[in-house]
Amino acid sequence: MNRDTRELEAHIQALLAEPAPQAPPLAQALSELWQQYQDLLERMERITRVSDAYQSMARQRELSLAERFDKQLRQLEKVARISDRYQKMMRELNLALKEAATHDPLTALVNRRPLLDRLRAEMERSDSRGHAFCVAMLDIDSFKPINDSYGHDVGDSVLVETSRVMESEVREYDLCGRWGGEEFLIILPETSLAEAEAIIHRVRAGIAALRIRVGADALSVTISAGLAQYRTGERYSELLNRADAALLQAKRAGRDRQQSAG
Ligand SMILES: Nc1nc2c(ncn2[C@@H]2O[C@H](COP(=O)(O)OP(=O)(O)OP(=O)(O)O)[C@@H](O)[C@H]2O)c(=O)[nH]1
């Protein structure tokens, strides 16, 4: 039965070529050929099925790889978004911390730290270039009675309004800060004592003109100030002590005035 197909075909051709073909041998050969074609067909169908299954498996694999890749990409994007938000939050937190460390929360003026940094910088600049520069210590007069009569909140408003005027009356390159309580320090770079006296006079006049409304009343305050010009080589504490001593003199002389250190 298992004759080679070519051999079988040749045999059939030979049988057909005979003038009177013998029916039984031809039928036998044709049946064998038919069986071989059937086997071949079945094998080919099997191969096709296997190939289809393999292709479908490969497609599935590609699909699941693409899906996994997409999922990981989405997860990465999510992580990147969270990290961006976290970094933004940290930046904002840092700014808030820096603001809190360098500014007075009530008046928004700088506090002692930046004032001292600037003072040291101006002292160095003055030592190396020989510029004159001055500081002024200012203190609201009789502030305690304001707190006692009108309450702490009104006292706070007085501090806020006073600092606002102070800032608006000094020059752009002067630095005005809250030294503590109702005391303020103004640093006046590249300024002679005579120039500083005129500026502080203007600041005090601005504050004296201020009217702070408390119900039906209009509150006004005055300022005493002590000024000192930097002496080459002195320590910042000496400079501040001289300004403070001048302020004390102004207070003792009756307040609402300014005094320059000799
Ligand atoms: N409302 C308020 N009061 C403050 C603040 N810081 C300090 N004070 C008050 O400021 C007052 C300062 O009083 P004193 O040092 O006796 O000075 P003063 O009454 O202004 O008298 P002179 O300075 O001598 O003119 C105190 O009552 C403090 O409680 C603040 O942030 N807000």
TrEMBL record:
Secretion signal, residue range per the UniProt entry: none
KW Membrane (keyword) present: no
Keywords: Nucleotidyltransferase, Transferase
EC assignment: 2.7.7.65
Matches recorded under SMART domains: GGDEF
NCBIfam families: diguan_SiaD, GGDEF
PANTHER family the record matches: DIGUANYLATE CYCLASE DGCM-RELATED, REGULATORY COMPONENTS OF SENSORY TRANSDUCTION SYSTEM
Name listed for the protein in its UniProt record: diguanylate cyclase
Species this protein is from: Vogesella oryzagri
